[in-house]
Write a structure and sequence with these properties.
disordered C terminus; disordered N terminus; 6-stranded antiparallel β-sheet; 9-stranded antiparallel β-sheet; alpha+beta
């Protein structure tokens, strides 16, 4: 518990109550935004997930492994779901879920085609708020599909806003809010604004339903929702306490069952049944027989027809509470006002040192996004492969197909998602970054997320962490240990200086298993040079790094090897922290110290053949192609691959001397292995006293690498560090071998290739997570070198900055993406007039997957709040960045300090 005696906010106290056993997180925004088209719901023979369960089936077909909805809320096992449905009187279907294109339909892969925003939220979900923009004209489903199919990869995606459907403000702003009166007492408020200059009608349907758990196995009890005479709905679920739904006014209650419409999808006659799409058919098609006349079922909607005047507003309320709750809606408004005020209080405390109101707005929305992106993720691989007793058996080929080698995997947890529409499944390295952001506001949940992936029902018995459901056996960068340490540091700050050593020790043992897996599986020659495949950087290589090379061989990867060097230092740092209270860990820390040196040696001279990953001529790190005949060829592409070695840096402080065994072993090792000692920067340095620097980069190499990175004609953009040098814009890199020709060009926007699905691009855009690691690494270097070690920033400017100032400048450039500039515009919105200028759009910020390398416009998944929410961490220091810039950008009058 925090030691500080200062007054805690009500939300902070709720977080403390969780540690005392009060389960404030039991209900939350745990529905997906797209359950259709996922691997979990795919029972096809050849793994064609998008085609097997399309959007058109979603309203009529029961899901096996989850649920989706607009602004959904549910319990931690998603047994019961609450969400909103809408109908403007013109659409062909009820708007119950978000629409988007599949991977093959979009000219840049899958993409949601809706406008919605996560605006607020607290860690316990005591208050949550989002906004959905619903057109008054018929939703252009077919046009979005056809136009995106027509466009090529050189053209931009065709978005909903591009159709002109929001012209003249002919749309509804639908605000969805939740508040908790208590752990199991959930309040929902829907506020609808007619933004048009004419009156308009909207059908609004708050919906409550039970996830289908009974259609798969025999003897599963069915939940029942029943209309009562007092105009409430009783909820009788065998796995939940008895609940009651209270609704405003006198809505028409519509009931059906959350079961597949076999008549619509399979042509099987089923008179008297009321299927999942019954409410849709009643509202849109007027089919009275589609809903249950006895007013009972497993799905219910409270049906309201709103007539809104021009510029008018209406509000609806609903409450899901324990059956013995006596107040109904009488104290509803008071509770909502209180929870919203408590959210303001919580963020006022968090943001007390951020003076810029716009920076506070962006940070709060970024954190809201990562809170809204939690999802109940359910996947049992053996059950999925073998099928269910009450369903037709799946094709036998599946038992030898996707994920068949992960039979231990059984997930049923609340997990932080990258994007609940485009990526409604966890990804190992994304989750590590999510945890770091979450640690700002909820270290307890952040720790639980990092532990989760190392649990026996996630981690493979061989030590591999699951990548993502499309291929759990793929390899993501090993950033888990880095995230563990950063979350530990944030948590220690929250706890008043007391670190959670039990958490650190628990996860450390599992990470050692994962480290061993890397060493045994991804080092082909056993020489501490690593491969790993695409490693999360999709199309960054001149080849598809996850595919076999045309003429055999493999790629010795600068990034894979640097990630492993970083991993060794992260594990060493954790071991040293544990060793301060348990000296057994000193020996383990020594092991990782030595392994780091061996990796550093291997990067300099692969196999003793004089070819390293560092190129002395170009002064950059490159992948090296190892052909089947033993020939090694550097692939001289200047990309993020060559900057990742910056991340392998650690500074050992004065406490180093309090660990006698580790101290003695490191000195012995460096004395008897002097060729290795020379590889690490500044180990023996009288000026640094008892502080020591471990890094892949000596002073000179680091300066040369930074000379590339901080050049605005190459890597440095106005909005951060690009993923590929801009030098390749007019002069693509070309590699020819045995009649094969490969090339790579700078592409600052969406991907121009189909590599890895084509829905992301690492050949020019700015990516938040790697920029964040660059900034942290520079800060760590600065903590060792101090203010005297300076580099030119930007290259050619004549201004010299120390590395702390450079880190602050990079942070400022990243923050610029989201913040209003002097012209009042946010670069993230690009040249969209309505998003830049309209008061109902311009302050609703989207946190995209990546950003245009030249103008900062948001690209890719529009709600990749998970790792892009790292901007919330950078905004902590935003207030001081402007001062840093003013002081730092004076022209240079001295030569660079630091040297070798």
């Amino acid at each position: 518990m925090p030691i500080s005696e200062k007054r805690r906010s009500a939300e902070a106290m709720r977080l403390e109550e969780i540690h005392d056993g009060k389960h404030w997180r039991r209900w939350g925004p745990y529905l997906s935004e797209r359950q259709w088209g996922t691997v979990r719901e795919d029972y096809s023979e050849y793994g064609t997930a998008w085609e097997y369960f399309p959007h058109d089936h979603a309203r009529s077909r029961a899901y096996r492994w989850g649920e989706d909805g607009i602004g959904g809320f549910g319990d931690e096992q998603l047994l019961l779901c609450l969400a909103l449905a809408l109908w403007n009187g013109r659409d062909p279907i009820l708007k119950e879920r978000l629409f988007g294109l599949t991977n093959s339909e979009g000219n840049h892969g899958e993409d949601v085609k809706e406008l919605y925003y996560y605006l607020d939220g607290t860690p316990t979900h005591s208050y949550m708020r989002m906004l959905y923009k619903y057109p008054q004209a018929a939703f252009p489903y077919a046009w979005l599909v056809e136009e995106n199919r027509r466009r090529g990869r050189s053209e931009a995606e065709f978005e909903l806003i591009d159709t002109g459907i929001f012209a003249e403000n002919r749309y509804f702003d639908v605000e969805i809010e939740y508040a908790k009166a208590d752990v199991d007492d959930i309040l929902m408020r829907v506020t609808v604004h007619n933004r048009a200059a004419d009156a308009a009608e909207l059908h609004v349907l708050p919906q409550l339903w039970a996830r289908n758990i009974w259609s798969w196995k025999p003897d599963c009890p069915r939940p029942l929702l029943v209309a009562r005479e007092d105009r409430t709905i009783s909820v009788d679920h065998p796995l939940l306490p008895r609940l009651r739904l209270h609704c405003d006014g006198s809505p028409e209650f519509l009931f059906c069952h959350n079961e597949t419409n076999i008549t619509r999808l399979s042509g099987i006659s089923a008179p008297g049944h009321h299927f999942k799409d019954g409410i849709n058919d009643y509202v849109v098609n007027g089919e009275v027989a589609a809903v249950a006349p006895d007013r009972r079922g497993s799905k219910v909607a409270a049906y309201y027809r709103l007539s809104l005047p021009a510029g008018g507003c209406a509000q609806l309320r609903a409450r899901l509470a324990p059956a013995d709750h006596a107040f109904g809606l009488s104290d509803f408004d008071h509770i909502f006002d209180q929870r919203r005020a408590e959210a303001d209080e919580f963020y006022a405390e968090l943001q007390h040192d951020i003076t810029d109101p716009d920076a506070r707005l962006v940070q709060r929305q970024a954190l809201a996004g990562v809170l809204w992106s939690k999802q109940f993720y359910y996947f049992d691989i053996p059950e999925w492969l073998n099928g269910d007793p009450l369903q037709p058996p799946p094709p036998a080929t599946r038992r030898h197909g996707r994920n068949c080698d992960w039979p231990h995997l059984n997930n049923a947890d609340i997990v932080s998602m990258p994007d609940k529409w485009e990526y409604p499944w966890y990804a190992a390295w994304d989750l590590a970054f999510h945890a770091v952001t979450l640690a700002l506001i909820d270290p307890g949940f952040a720790k639980s997320q990092l532990l989760l992936l190392t649990r026996d029902w996630y981690m493979h018995p061989n030590g591999q962490l699951p990548a993502y459901e499309w291929a759990f056996g793929d390899v993501n960068p090993p950033v888990h240990a880095w995230a563990v340490w950063r979350v530990y540091e944030f948590d220690r700050e929250h706890r008043g200086g007391e670190g959670d050593l039990a958490f650190l020790e628990r996860v450390f043992h599992k990470l050692m298993l994962n480290f061993t897996w890397w060493v045994n599986r991804k080092d082909v020659e056993g020489r501490n040079i690593f491969q790993g495949g695409f490693l999360g950087l999709d199309n960054i290589g001149i080849f598809d790094r996850n595919a076999k090379l045309p003429n055999g061989g493999y790629i010795n990867q600068a990034d894979g090897t640097a990630w492993m060097a970083m991993y060794t230092l992260n594990l060493m740092r954790i071991a040293l922290e544990l060793a301060l209270t348990d000296h057994v860990y000193e020996d383990i820390a020594s092991k990782f110290f030595e392994h780091f040196l061996y990796i550093a040696e291997a990067m300099t001279n692969i196999g003793g053949d004089g070819i390293g990953l560092w190129d002395d001529e170009d002064e950059f790190y490159y992948d090296v192609l190892h052909l089947s005949d033993g020939e090694r060829i550097p692939l001289r592409v200047r990309s993020l691959v060559g900057l990742i070695p910056l991340f392998a840096v650690e500074v050992l402080g004065a406490w180093f001397s309090s660990l006698p065994r580790f101290n003695a072993r490191t000195h012995w090792f460096l004395e008897h292995r002097p060729h290795l000692a020379r590889l690490v920067s500044r180990w023996y340095n009288a000026k640094s006293g008892e502080r020591h620097l471990l890094s892949l980069l000596r002073g000179h190499r680091m300066k040369r690498l930074l000379n590339r990175m901080l050049d605005e004609t190459a890597f440095l953009s106005d909005f951060g560090v690009r993923s590929l040098s801009k030098l390749y814009e007019d002069n693509p890199y070309v590699f020819e071998r045995d009649g094969n020709r490969f090339s790579i060009s700078y592409v600052p926007g969406d991907s121009a290739t189909t590599v890895f699905g084509g829905n992301s691009n690492w050949r020019g855009p700015v990516w938040m997570p790697v920029n964040f690691l660059i900034i942290e690494s520079l800060q760590r270097f600065h903590s060792y070198y101090g203010d005297d070690f300076k580099v030119e920033y930007p290259v050619g400017s004549g201004a010299l900055l120390h590395l702390g100032e450079v880190a602050a400048e990079l942070s400022r450039r990243l923050c610029r993406i989201f913040l209003r500039g002097e012209d009042g515009k946010r670069p993230v919105f690009g040249d969209s007039p309505i998003e830049q200028n309209d008061p109902h759009f311009r302050d609703n910020v989207l946190f995209y997957e990546f950003f245009h390398g030249d103008n900062g416009r948001g690209l890719g998944a529009s709600h990749q709040t998970g790792w892009t929410a790292l901007i919330a961490c950078l905004l902590r220091s935003y207030a001081s960045t402007a001062a840093v810039r003013t002081a730092a950008m004076a022209p240079a009058t001295e030569v660079e300090a630091g040297g070798q």
